Amino acid sequence: MKPKVIYDTFLSEAQKNLESFNGDNKSKEYKKLQKELRRAENAFNSANEKYQIVESAIADLKDNNLEEYDALNDLKDAGGNAVDVYIITKDNLVNDKTGQKVDGITKANPNNAYMLIDNNTKEKN
What confidence score (pLDDT) does residue 108 get? Predict the structure, then answer.
């Protein structure tokens, strides 16, 4: 389940709990439900913002480099199993060695990684 969907569910539940409350609006229970709703709204907004940024990055890759997008979208391991690709966005990436701004980084281990070449995966020695 996508994190955005989880937070959307929490938000919906908090809204329903507050709307269905039949007690005194000045009671501790009501204030607790209001607090839970605010927390759910904040969590949803935080997750949604990150989700939208990643969705935009994926759409940008698809629009500007369809071949690479398709290769990542259909990536399989040596056993032919689909491989999940996780996308994380970060602002102002800088190369530690050169100090220059970069568009992306990877934490792939070259000793135990697969290189993507012509839409095929090949184990790197």
Answer: 55
